[in-house]
Amino acid sequence: MKEKWLKVIRNQRHEDDWMPTTYSKVCSEHFLTSDVYITKNNLRRLKKTAVPVIKKEEQNTILSSPSSLQRVIVSDGDSIFDTPRKTFLKTKLRKFSLEKRWLQLNNYNLIRKNKRVKEKCNNLKQIVSELKKKKIFYNTSDKRTKS
Length: 147
What we know:
Pfam families: THAP
Organism: Parnassius mnemosyne
Domain THAP-type: 1-55
Largest sheet: 2 strands, antiparallel
Oligomer: single chain
Protein name: THAP-type domain-containing protein
Radius of gyration: 32 Å
GO molecular function: DNA binding; zinc ion binding
C-alpha cells in the first residue's frame, strides 16, 4: 500500500526520488469520499485501501489554463505538494497568527479594565473631596494645617 501512495505522490509532485518524512501529510481533499468513514466519536478516518488521487476536474482545470495557478489560494492546511520546511513554516505562521489574535484580545480587555479602574479611582476621589467639604473626613495632613 505504501508503494501505491509513493507512486501517486511522486507522480503529482513530479519528483521520482521523493521520500516522505515524519512531517509529510496528505490533505483529505486528495482522497475519494468513498475512502473516508466516520467513527463512533465523529472522527474522519481513511480506509486501509485508500490511495490519494487527483480528481479529474482539478487535473483538467490545471492542465487547460496555466494562469489558473496564479489564482490558487493556499489554505492553512498542509498540502501534498508542501515540503517539510514549508509545512513547518505554515504551522508556525498559524501559531503566531493565533497568538497575535489572543494578544490583541488580551490587550483590548486590559485597556477596558484600566479604563474602569481609572473611573473607579476618579469616583473615589470625588467622594473623598465631598466628604472633606462636609468635614466628615480629613487627612492627618489637613488636621495639622488647621491647628
